[in-house]
Amino acid sequence: MAPVLRTTPPGHDVILYDGHCRLCGGAARRLQRLLGGTGTRLRSFREDGGLAAFPGVTADRCERALQLVLPDGVVVEGLEAIVLALGRRPLGRLLRVYYVPGLRQLLDALYRVVARHRFRIAGRQCPDGACVVHFK
């Protein structure tokens, strides 16, 4: 089991996503609608100073997976971050199926593949051309 990453506690959930990725941006907008008035804030880690408030959460980590910074500063990533964020909503309890042994590993593997190829799947949305470095 990987060590738990902790950062500065924000006092509310903060989801860090890739604002240069069309797939990620669309998912963030849908996630925001689903979260409604929970107080969760979504933020592109690529914004100026986007990671400054969260020491230890690196751009490299954010490149690999969406990051959820919990109110106490614990950082959770990937699909589990989405499950935890939505899990507090009434129908979100259904997402606990994610923790079924075997299913979690399968879903995490699928998430990693999509995350790795997200720019090829959905394109990029950075006008300055900085995203071109992601096409490997």
Helix share, percent: 25-40%
Lateral strand order in the biggest sheet? 1-5-4-2-3
Shape estimate: globular
Return the structural class: alpha+beta
| Integer-rounded radius of gyration | 15 Å
Total helical elements: 5
Question: Distance between termini?
Answer: 29 Å
Defining traits:
136 residues; alpha+beta
Q: How does the SSE layout of this entry go?
A:
Blueprint: E1 5-6, E2 14-17, H1 22-35, E3 41-44, H2 59-64, E4 67-69, E5 74-77, H3 78-86, H4 103-116, H5 118-122
Please describe what this structure looks like.
By secondary structure, this protein is α+β, with helices and mostly antiparallel strands. Helix content is 35%, strand content 12%. The chain contains five helices and five strands; from the N terminus they run ββαβαββααα. The chain has helices spanning 22-35, 59-64, 78-86, 103-116, 118-122, and strands at residues 5-6, 14-17, 41-44, 67-69, 74-77. Strand 4 (67-69) and strand 5 form a beta hairpin. The longest helix has 14 residues, at 22-35. It is globular and about 40 Å long. The protein starts with a strand and ends in a 14-residue tail after the last helix.
In brief:
The chain is an alpha+beta fold and 136 residues long.
